[in-house]
Design brief:
By secondary structure, the chain is mainly beta. It is built from no helices and 13 strands. About 20% of the residues are buried.
């Protein structure tokens, strides 16, 4: 019983007891609304107790099964064009680990490949505020630094009463 690479895909071979492949920790700090997709297929005559199951862990927490298409029990066949098993809306975090658990008997193989993580870039803004030097003064400032996300950034400045804002002035 082992996992190996064959034809550029990971193959589970003769996993008569449940065996697990676990990814390295993947940095997801710059993403929100993360989605995970895994391509998978099988070969051989699968028994009713054979399966491949997908789960993820955010920030080292408990593994959660994929909500969409989380497990497959002898209900597909074919090649790498076969089903994509996905989990949508993975909670935001710093890292994610993907776990794939397989059980099958001799001369039966589960394959998985093309693990894709997609989502929305998470933009972060940090403000540095300089207060006015005296009451009624006009020398206050705010400097905003934006990181992550996708450039070019767009923004809209406003004040509580709509006055006194100079959006073209920069220090």
């Amino acid at each position: 019983s082992y996992f190996s690479v064959q034809s550029q895909a990971m193959r589970a071979v003769n996993q008569s007891t449940a065996s697990t492949w676990t990814s390295e920790s993947i940095d997801i700090r710059s993403w929100t609304n993360l989605n995970i997709k895994v391509g998978t297929w099988e070969s051989g005559t699968m028994d009713t107790d054979d399966y491949i199951a997908f789960a993820y862990s955010v920030n080292g927490g408990t593994f959660q099964p994929f909500v969409n298409n989380g497990s497959i029990y002898n209900d597909y066949s074919g090649s790498s064009a076969s089903p994509i098993y996905a989990c949508t809306n993975v909670p935001d975090g710093n890292s994610v680990v993907i776990r794939i658990t397989v059980k099958e008997n001799s001369n039966e193989y589960h394959y998985f490949d093309n693990i894709h993580l997609t989502g929305d870039p998470a933009m972060e803004a940090t403000a540095t505020i300089t207060n006015v030097s005296c009451n009624g003064g006009a020398n206050g400032a705010i400097e905003v630094a934006v990181t992550k996300g996708v450039v070019p950034y767009t923004y809209a400045w406003s004040t509580s009463n709509g006055s006194g804002l100079n959006t073209t002035s920069e220090d």
